[in-house]
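Suppose you are handed only two things: the residues of a chain and a line of SMILES describing zinc ion. What would the bound structure be? This form records exactly that question and the answer produced for it, so the two can be stored side by side and reused later without any lookup.

QUESTION INPUTS
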Amino acid sequence: MSRATNEQIWKWLDAVPDPEIPVISVVDLGIVRGVAWDADTLEVSVTPTYSGCPATSVIAMDIETALMDRGVEHVRIKTQIAPAWTTDWLSEKGRAKLEDYGISPPNEAGGPEQCPRCKSKEVERISQFGSTPCKAQWRCTDCLEPFDYFKCI
Ligand SMILES: [Zn+2]
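ANSWER OUTPUT
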């Protein structure tokens, strides 16, 4: 096949969901750092959200599968450790989607800015551990709803 353009590849990657938070794509998450052709092999650079994140190998496989489904025959996933991923790499679109989904997007202060449901600033931490290692459980003291806070840094 003829080589897909980088623009096309980014679009395809933007359809690959994050395995832990399927409402956002791996591109929204900001972990795909670059795509480049090396002869007939497409090299995709991926930065894990944190080293040892159990989702990293799943993500690499999902990206590979998605590209192969679109006819890219040779895919190489390059793990790029530096610079380290930060929550700043999460796209605006990704943040909005997280909030719609009821997950508080990461915040520089290290805790959620507001309740994703009623937008109250009165929130408290219930547990450091949520449903996945990337999330912590918080609760809004106004609407009393618990919610997940995305804490990967
Ligand atoms: Zn609330």
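WHAT STANDS OUT: DSSP finds four helices and seven strands in the chain. Residues 6-79 form a domain with the GMP Synthetase; Chain A, domain 3 fold (CATH 3.30.300.130).
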